[in-house]
User: Fold this.
Amino acid sequence: MQRLAGQVAIVTGGAQGIGGATARRLAEEGASVLIVDVDQAAAEENVRTIRQSGGAAEWVVADVSKHEDIRKMVDEAVRRFGKLTILVNNAYNAGLGSNKGSAVDVSEESWDYGMAMLTKAIYLGVKYAVPWIQQAGGGSIVNISSVHGLLMAPDSLVYEAGKSAVIGMTREMAIDFGPLGIRVNAICPGHIVTERIRQRMWDDNPSGLRFFEQQYPVRRCGKPVDIANAIVFLCSEEASFITGHALVVDGGLSIQLQENIGVHLARYIQEHPDTKLP
Ligand SMILES: NC(=O)c1ccc[n+]([C@@H]2O[C@H](COP(=O)([O-])OP(=O)(O)OC[C@H]3O[C@@H](n4cnc5c(N)ncnc54)[C@H](O)[C@@H]3O)[C@@H](O)[C@H]2O)c1
Assistant:
């Protein structure tokens, strides 16, 4: 039986990567999905894939760093499918990852853009979606944070601050909208090998990926569908008593004592001296 039959979902950044897999899994479970993305070609392609598998999907080009575009995406979901019950706040601009630096280094402009993408987009998406989800009788919101929202990497102020804030926003929203029948949860993924990450980091360095995988107790990195499956669960009736939770989906990466993993990685390098470090 499909777990999300009759639901209507928005997935921001739903053309590819984690959002792409999420759009496909939500549709497989019976939801009608509006893919919101800046990449029209990839969004169209994902809609085609979903329809070929018998699912219902549409796309709209919208930039979640812009207030008017967020209002438009919510209006479009309701106009095309008649209601809204699920919002997945996932969109990610690859530039954010290279927006490195400490508080001393980061420019005010980088800070403002990072916060617009990582936090304000979620605030505004929720602002416009909640009245419609309430009108539909309730539903679910999932905000994508990261293990970087829990554990900090050096020289990454914008991303770490933004992803930490997503967890706090999720808890606050869960309290505010629980009485309306709307559950709000976050997901903290570990390293997920998306199409883009595979091309950018690993296609030219398979030994680096194998080394990276050694950091994970399950000895692999994540796949987009690992996160998509967790999102389906959080949106389903099976999770009806779960709200305000930040679900870590990281193959055990963040539960380890750092000194032990350090020793394991040093041994791995000794045994595999040809490893090209990432
Ligand atoms: N991949 C990972 O290892 C990883 C780990 C932890 C958390 N995350 C989080 O997961 C989410 C998805 O990341 P991903 O790796 O799948 O990214 P991705 O780059 O593979 O896909 C992101 C999608 O968002 C779209 N997008 C970019 N800017 C946009 C904008 N302004 N408005 C609308 N859409 C826009 C892109 O076109 C793309 O389709 C992000 O919130 C990211 O921070 C990813």
Summary: Residues 8-198+221-253 form a domain with the Rossmann fold fold (CATH 3.40.50.720). The CA atoms of residues 38 and 61 lie 5 Å apart. The longest strand covers residues 182-189. The chain has a mean pLDDT of 97.
